[in-house]
Write a structure and sequence with these properties.
alpha+beta; Multidrug efflux transporter AcrB transmembrane fold; MMPL_dom; 3-stranded antiparallel sheet; membrane; transmembrane helix; single chain; 4-stranded antiparallel sheet; 27 helices; 784 residues; RND family transporter; disordered C terminus; SSD
């Protein structure tokens, strides 16, 4: 170590163990305060946090948010009858009651609510006398057979088949646009409360053997994510119990096990309390961070238990053993935790609110682990010590033949090291080959955040199979001078744009102001299809423009949306649509008309995919670069830094290959995994090299030094990997699919990083680290 780190270590050791009681009182007071704050923490999610608000697409959407609200954050509620079709008094009475219920749910944009019963649902017909129109359900509707037949005619004339009314006539949809903020109170929409009210006031109240309810929309996804996160407490309990059993089996000491779990639990409480003080809530993406905080804390505390038991077995008193443990682990543990923090903090380059909150929350968790593990745990252990059962277990380990350690330490021999390096190269090559198929974005239909068999995805499947209008809408905004949105030059450009986009793979159909205008012009001329075209005559276009729905243009007639209905929102589909739309805009934009992207749920998702793709490589460069610098700073050796970083890089490539094999795209839910895996996985290498350095400085040859490293800290490192993997493996059973995906990938990375560190570090050291002189060399000489 350098003199600076020696002085820092000595200072903290003196202050910590000379003032043990004040230290404990300080931790008690802070824990009480932060526990109170943590108790006030509530679930918090919003659509704004789940999208890249700084991306130009989202900025364009937000600029026209009020005009595009009916096309943006919308909930669709399909009311299905199991008895015949929708043209019955009983069904329509039920639909009216549900429409009224939805109307009064806070957050609903009541002026744009749409169903068969709302006034904005009308029909238009051309007769010999001219245009005739009226509401689909007339004011004098009484449910009589004659009125039901008239309703059926009105529905056909309204063009609602396939959009508001199902193709088979057995269901109809209530379209409920939402406000992100309550216009009266200004408070953010509580998606959890909104979803629960939908379930209580609509599904639970009206669904029976005659009526089925299907609900889709981003707000319902977020609400289901919040509800699915309620099982987190159960998973945390299972993780706690498994960790307790694992630590007890390893240490044979109740005292050290319980003290370790206490410190790690306090770290979780501190982290939640500080997050509350920072003004954050429990976002569905960040709700798993307490698991990571607990798992990281336990994984580092294992080293304390191992070192404390060894020092006590060597004959030191409880206090002296605690001091020796502090000296042994303070620098290595702090650097390892700083690397963890780096892995989390690099997520800040992803300009998506939910991910940045995750980064801040996780970084706070690592910071409090430094306090609870580095300072509180040694003080508590200086009082509690370890049990006689622990010492007897330590004696048995010392007298065992250490067959596994002997076998693994053989990798430090040049011949076996070359074989290990060759095997690593083969794995790397296979990983790179498979990782070529890795995609950016979602690869599954419906809501990939939820499991395929979830209620929401079954509702999406119902909508897809019974309605013609796709739920995946990509909106391109066309801007013009004020009052010119219906002019012929604009119409010609938009008509060509629609034609070109409808020939892009994945685009099923398109709708714009001029789709309706062409139909209205043809209707004006007795339905003659020869007139189903845009008109150069401004009087004709103006007369038709007034009769078209306001959702197809803004009030100033300076912006009109073009709706592209996509077959799905998969990564390749969105990439193709974006490329085609951008190319058209680059070629045809001028002062009179501009095509700007993008709105609609698919437009938002396309922007998210672009941000994720741009941030992925930058994030990896940052996490690897900063972690490598920290490792080099600690060991003052680029060779040893390389020995630590190479296994991490191989595991990252294998993780990407696994994602490709499992059909998981790189997206908001999976992108953090690689940064987390690298930041946390480097801990293994740091602890191994820290002990290896100690034995090499004693003049031992590499193989013997590594054997002693394995016998002293190798089992603890292996247990660290298992502990981390256990901590996240319970996520695999979550109802939320991206939680399950993160759990599976992190479990893989934690275990493979552990195996890679134990096997590859000695192999690489044997190949690239210079032989150590038999004299007592300095750290710089040994690892130059």
């Amino acid at each position: 170590m350098s003199r600076t780190t020696d002085r820092i270590e000595a200072f903290f050791e003196r202050q910590l163990f000379a003032h043990r009681v004040p230290v404990l009182l300080f931790f008690l007071a802070v824990s009480a305060l932060l526990a109170w704050q943590a108790s006030l923490l509530r679930p918090d999610a919003s659509l704004a946090k789940m999208v890249p608000a700084s991306h130009p697409y989202i900025a364009n959407y937000l600029h026209y948010e009020n005009e595009l609200r009916p096309l943006g954050n919308v909930v669709r509620i399909a009311v299905e009858t199991t008895d015949g079709d929708i043209y019955s008094r009983e069904y329509l009475d039920t639909l009216k009651k549900i429409t009224d219920e939805v109307f009064y749910i806070p957050g609903v944009d009541r002026g744009n609510l749409k169903s068969l019963w709302t006034p904005n649902m009308d029909w238009v017909e051309v007769t010999e006398e001219g245009f005739q129109s009226g509401p689909v359900i007339a004011k004098d509707f009484d449910g009589s057979p004659g009125k039901l037949e008239q309703l059926k005619t009105n529905v056909l004339r309204s063009g609602a088949i396939g959009s508001i009314v199902a193709n088979d006539g057995r269901s109809s949809v209530i379209v409920a646009p939402l406000f992100e903020r309550d216009p009266d109170s200004g408070e953010k929409l509580d998606y959890g409360a909104f979803s629960r009210k939908l379930e209580a006031l609509v599904r639970a109240k009206y669904e029976n053997e005659h009526v089925r309810i299907h609900v889709t929309g981003m707000a319902k996804i977020v609400g289901d994510l919040i509800d699915g996160a309620s099982s987190i407490a159960m998973f945390f309990g299972i993780t706690f119990a498994m960790t307790l059993a694992l630590l007890l089996a390893y240490s044979r000491c109740w005292r050290s096990t319980l003290i370790t779990l206490l410190c790690c639990s306090l770290a979780v409480v501190w982290q939640l309390g500080i997050v509350r003080l920072l003004g954050f809530g429990l976002d569905p993406y960040a709700i798993l961070v307490p698991f990571l905080t607990f798992a990281i804390g336990v994984s580092h505390a294992v080293q304390n238990i191992n070192t404390m038991a060894t020092e006590r077995w060597l004959g030191r008193s409880t206090l002296d053993a605690a001091k020796a443990t502090f000296r042994t682990l303070f620098v290595a543990g702090t650097i390892a935790l700083l690397c963890d923090a780096v892995g989390f903090s690099t997520l800040l380059v992803i300009r998506i609110g939910a991910i940045q909150e995750l980064a801040v929350s996780a970084s706070v968790g690592v910071a409090v682990i430094i306090f609870t593990k580095m300072f509180l745990l040694p003080v508590l252990m200086s009082y509690a010590g370890v049990s006689q059962a622990c010492l007897r277990h330590q004696e048995r380990k010392a007298q065992s033949r250490q067959v596994v350690a002997h076998a693994i330490s053989g990798v430090a021999e040049p011949g076996k090291a070359k074989l290990a390096a060759l095997a690593a190269l083969v794995l790397l090559g296979i990983g790179l080959l498979l990782a070529r198929d890795l995609k950016i974005g979602d690869l599954d239909p419906g809501a990939p955040e939820l499991r395929r068999e979830s209620r929401y995805n079954r509702d999406v499947a119902f909508m897809t199979s019974h309605y013609s209008t796709s739920a995946d809408v990509f909106v391109v905004m066309v801007t013009t001078p004020v009052g010119e949105c219906g002019a012929y030059p604009v119409a010609a450009a938009v008509d060509r744009f629609q034609w070109e986009m409808e020939n892009v793979p994945g685009v099923e159909s398109s709708v714009s102001l001029f789709t309706g205008m062409k139909a209205m012009i043809a209707a004006t001329y007795s339905g003659d299809l020869k007139w189903n075209a845009i008109s150069r005559d401004r009087y004709i276009s103006n007369s038709v423009y007034k009769a078209l729905p306001g959702v197809l243009h803004n009030s100033e007639c300076s912006m009109l949306p073009v709706l592209l209905f996509l077959k799905d929102h998969k990564a390749d589909t969105l990439a193709g649509v974006v490329a085609a739309a951008e190319a058209f805009a680059a070629k045809h934009n001028d002062d009179g008309v501009k095509f700007i992207l993008a709105a609609g749920n698919s437009g938002v998702e396309a922007a998210t995919n672009i941000v994720v793709k741009q941030a992925e490589r930058l994030m990896l460069l940052l996490v690897y670069g900063i972690v490598a610098l920290l490792v080099w700073w600690e060991f003052k050796s680029w060779r040893m830094a390389l020995c630590i970083m190479v296994p991490l890089a191989i595991t990252s490539v294998l993780c990407e290959a696994l994602m490709a094999l499992l059909g998981l795209g790189v997206k908001v839910g999976t992108l953090p995994v690689i940064a987390l895996g690298v930041g946390i996985g480097v801990d293994y290498g740091i602890y191994i090299v820290n002990r290896l350095e100690h034995f090499l400085r004693q003049g031992l040859p590499l193989k013997e030094a590594y054997f002693r490293t394995l016998t002293s800290t190798g089992v603890a490192v292996a247990l660290t990997g298992v502990t981390l993997a256990l901590g996240v493996s319970t996520w695999i059973f979550s109802a939320i699919k991206f939680h399950a995906d993160m759990g599976l990938l992190l479990t893989f990375m934690f275990l493979w990083n552990m195996v890679g560190a134990i096997v590859m570090i000695p192999a690489l050291a044997a190949l690239i680290v210079r032989p150590v002189p038999q004299a007592q060399p300095s750290n710089q000489e040994a690892f130059a």
